[in-house]
Amino acid sequence: MSTPRLPRYDAVSRLFDRQDYTYLPLKKDHASRPIWINPENGHFILEAFSPIADQAQDFLTAIAEPVSRPAHIHEYRLTPYSLYAAVSVGLETNDIIDVLNRLSKVPVPESVAKLIRECTLSYGKVKLVLKQNRYYVESQHPSILQRLLKDDVIRGARVLDSGDGNSGNSFLQNKAPTADGLKIPGTGKKAQGQDAEMFNTLIELDKDDEVGEDESEDVHSFEIVSAQVENVRKRCNQLDLPMLEEYDFRNDTFNPDLEIDLKPITVIRPYQEKSLSKMFGNGRARSGIIVLPCGAGKTLVGITAACTVKKSTLVLCTSSVSVMQWKQQFLMWSNIKESRIAVFTADQKERFSGDAGIVISTYSMVANTRQRSYESAKMMEFIRSREWGFLLLDEVHVVPAQMFRQVISTVATHAKLGLTATLVREDEKIDDLNFLIGPKLYEANWMDLALQGHIATVQCAEVWCEMTPEFYSEYLRETSRKRALLYAMNPRKVQACQYLIRYHEGRGDKIIVFSDNVYALREYALLLKKPFIYGGTGQTERMNILHQFQHNPALNTMFLSKVGDTSIDLPEATCLIQISSHYGSRRQEAQRLGRILRAKRRNDEGFNAFFYSLVSKDTQEMYYSTKRQQFLIDQGYAFKVITHLEGMDDMENLVYRDKASRLDYLHTVLMASERRRMPRWRTTTLARRAAGSLQSLSGGDSMAYMEYERPKAKKDVQHPLFKKYKKKRGAA
Ligand SMILES: Nc1ncnc2c1ncn2[C@@H]1O[C@H](COP(=O)(O)OP(=O)(O)OP(=O)(O)O)[C@@H](O)[C@H]1O
């Protein structure tokens, strides 16, 4: 091996310190290649302005985790999970290294190639397939099955007389099913064609050799006892041979078919098609997670997947409001008969007619292990006693891993699809999803969808509001609990809110003002004479306000607590103002932005939606605000900082203009805090209490909404390859 060249030292070298990679030999034609590879940490930098950036982006999203994707330069990170996902959508070790080499300005560093080889050689080689209600461990590589059968646990789980004429001494040999006859657009030949095209352009692969490989080769398998599936899965993970889960739904004659198709008028969008092609690319249903921005139509993706599988489907959502929305969307997009859809919530316990159907419920209803009403217990028996073709899991990022385990062990299902907008990766619970549901199959780029007009273009701004001297001196004196109250109620912030509402109402916008703090929500709304909705608002009043907001031109602003973060589809809204928020939740920030991404007017010429975050200057809120924005910044949003709102101080009827009224107001705020007239509202406490009260009002009990500090990794749930990888990184 040749010795590595040393960095070239020049005038700017000191700025790069250990990140000086000028020693890496640039290829002659590097200018036409779009990727830089960091040999030390497996990060890729993509020049998003390159003519082949689109193809490169497709490829990088398939093999790596997007870290940050602003307009011109994108950053991706290679991880064992991302490589696991790459293999699960059909990419092979050599393809990955070859394509990377084609796209890279420098030869693929050996450290990176080694990681790819280590993580992918064994991944995807073993599949768990449920055929006619029997579980098979399947592989195209007999040697791998032999290796598995040397393991006591796996050998013990094997069915020795499978009853199909096979003695169990030799592997059952059969043909892998072909992808023909698959109906959803983009998952059949066309999607494979697109993939093939990309590969051909990039690596000039021989199509016959590579693309159709899976369809022509023999596969080998052995049957395992269904009660041992979980143990075998665990054991395979420990042996660095994780099993991919696939459902051969077209050959499943055991489970009755469900009559469901997309309506002819339903046209799915290209990115929805692409995400589904990752799931159904080889004619079977792969379990995994699809990540699409808020408002990009995850519901239709889930419905199209259900229309493809055409077997009994269980849909789980976070609240009873979502349950009703899913039902309505199934009826809107597909031709399913209403009698075939059943709803299972605290208020409704229906069953579908016929032998196949859809049940829509909440995670908490299905995971609940407490004493249940007679009706609920019967409904659970109905769910438990049958085999489900497809399990659709909505908003997987807010559901604790324990709840998933409960659900997954309760429901016998062949394929699982998780849907989410923000897969926050450093949370251990999110990591668990990879193995509880499956790998991430697809993640869309927010900016691309905005450019194509599928979601709105949003101008984001952080408005810095000076604390008034009275509030600030109180702030400096107080404990952190009261501090949070003071920066939320800062009179300059109230004024900014008043000003922005007036300005945007004047432009014809419909405005939602968000506050996590119910006390602040009420006070602001009452002062500015606008309606507000929070957990305690009755259903009739809530519906009335939402209806007025949508249809009454005289009502253009409403205040919403965190009950409005999800499950509220208000395409009329074009402007968001956030006055108080969870202290560091990037996820919540993204979900709030999601409320305006679906703006009806998004395709009007020059249309922009607006997202303002009001922050009290020189307080802790500034730190939390910066932290919250990180996810959106990584998606390419730029937050402008506004330090002065032009004309605000001269505005007619500006609240708290004089010192006396501000002192009065301060007194009221402090008194309110003392008397505990409001919910205890230190942010962490509020979050915990809200999980018990506000969410239960909307049927979302037990949802985890807070973002947690990264907990210590639990040894037993961590994939060994990941451990290995971490160890190596630590040692490096
Ligand atoms: N292919 C399509 N054609 C027309 N309209 C679509 C299509 N896909 C989605 N929509 C519309 O886009 C809007 C947003 O869809 P949906 O509510 O499923 O988004 P979402 O991704 O679930 O958002 P969130 O994460 O905020 O819940 C809906 O009004 C839906 O009807």
TrEMBL record:
<dbReference type="GO" id="GO:0016787">
    <property type="term" value="F:hydrolase activity"/>
</dbReference>
<dbReference type="InterPro" id="IPR014001">
    <property type="entry name" value="Helicase_ATP-bd"/>
</dbReference>
<dbReference type="GO" id="GO:0005675">
    <property type="term" value="C:transcription factor TFIIH holo complex"/>
</dbReference>
<keyword id="KW-0067">ATP-binding</keyword>
<dbReference type="InterPro" id="IPR050615">
    <property type="entry name" value="ATP-dep_DNA_Helicase"/>
</dbReference>
<dbReference type="InterPro" id="IPR027417">
    <property type="entry name" value="P-loop_NTPase"/>
</dbReference>
<keyword id="KW-0539">Nucleus</keyword>
<comment type="function">
    <text>ATP-dependent 3'-5' DNA helicase/translocase; binds dsDNA rather than ssDNA, unzipping it in a translocase rather than classical helicase activity. Component of the general transcription and DNA repair factor IIH (TFIIH) core complex. When complexed to CDK-activating kinase (CAK), involved in RNA transcription by RNA polymerase II. Also involved in transcription-coupled nucleotide excision repair (NER) of damaged DNA. In NER, TFIIH acts by opening DNA around the lesion to allow the excision of the damaged oligonucleotide and its replacement by a new DNA fragment.</text>
</comment>
<dbReference type="InterPro" id="IPR006935">
    <property type="entry name" value="Helicase/UvrB_N"/>
</dbReference>
<dbReference type="GO" id="GO:0000112">
    <property type="term" value="C:nucleotide-excision repair factor 3 complex"/>
</dbReference>
<keyword id="KW-0413">Isomerase</keyword>
<dbReference type="InterPro" id="IPR032438">
    <property type="entry name" value="ERCC3_RAD25_C"/>
</dbReference>
<keyword id="KW-0804">Transcription</keyword>
<keyword id="KW-0234">DNA repair</keyword>
<dbReference type="GO" id="GO:0006367">
    <property type="term" value="P:transcription initiation at RNA polymerase II promoter"/>
</dbReference>
<dbReference type="GO" id="GO:0097550">
    <property type="term" value="C:transcription preinitiation complex"/>
</dbReference>
<feature type="region of interest" description="Disordered">
    <location>
        <begin position="166"/>
        <end position="191"/>
    </location>
</feature>
<protein>
    <recommendedName>
        <fullName>DNA 3'-5' helicase</fullName>
        <ecNumber>5.6.2.4</ecNumber>
    </recommendedName>
</protein>
<comment type="similarity">
    <text>Belongs to the helicase family. RAD25/XPB subfamily.</text>
</comment>
<dbReference type="InterPro" id="IPR001161">
    <property type="entry name" value="XPB/Ssl2"/>
</dbReference>
<keyword id="KW-0805">Transcription regulation</keyword>
<dbReference type="Pfam" id="PF13625">
    <property type="entry name" value="Helicase_C_3"/>
</dbReference>
<keyword id="KW-0347">Helicase</keyword>
<dbReference type="Pfam" id="PF16203">
    <property type="entry name" value="ERCC3_RAD25_C"/>
</dbReference>
<keyword id="KW-0227">DNA damage</keyword>
<keyword id="KW-0378">Hydrolase</keyword>
<dbReference type="GO" id="GO:0006289">
    <property type="term" value="P:nucleotide-excision repair"/>
</dbReference>
<dbReference type="GO" id="GO:0003677">
    <property type="term" value="F:DNA binding"/>
</dbReference>
<dbReference type="GO" id="GO:0043138">
    <property type="term" value="F:3'-5' DNA helicase activity"/>
</dbReference>
<dbReference type="InterPro" id="IPR032830">
    <property type="entry name" value="XPB/Ssl2_N"/>
</dbReference>
<feature type="domain" description="Helicase C-terminal">
    <location>
        <begin position="495"/>
        <end position="656"/>
    </location>
</feature>
<dbReference type="GO" id="GO:0005524">
    <property type="term" value="F:ATP binding"/>
</dbReference>
<comment type="subunit">
    <text>Component of the 7-subunit TFIIH core complex composed of XPB/SSL2, XPD/RAD3, SSL1, TFB1, TFB2, TFB4 and TFB5, which is active in NER. The core complex associates with the 3-subunit CTD-kinase module TFIIK composed of CCL1, KIN28 and TFB3 to form the 10-subunit holoenzyme (holo-TFIIH) active in transcription.</text>
</comment>
<dbReference type="Pfam" id="PF04851">
    <property type="entry name" value="ResIII"/>
</dbReference>
<keyword id="KW-0547">Nucleotide-binding</keyword>
<keyword id="KW-0238">DNA-binding</keyword>
<feature type="compositionally biased region" description="Polar residues">
    <location>
        <begin position="167"/>
        <end position="176"/>
    </location>
</feature>
<dbReference type="InterPro" id="IPR001650">
    <property type="entry name" value="Helicase_C-like"/>
</dbReference>
<feature type="domain" description="Helicase ATP-binding">
    <location>
        <begin position="279"/>
        <end position="441"/>
    </location>
</feature>
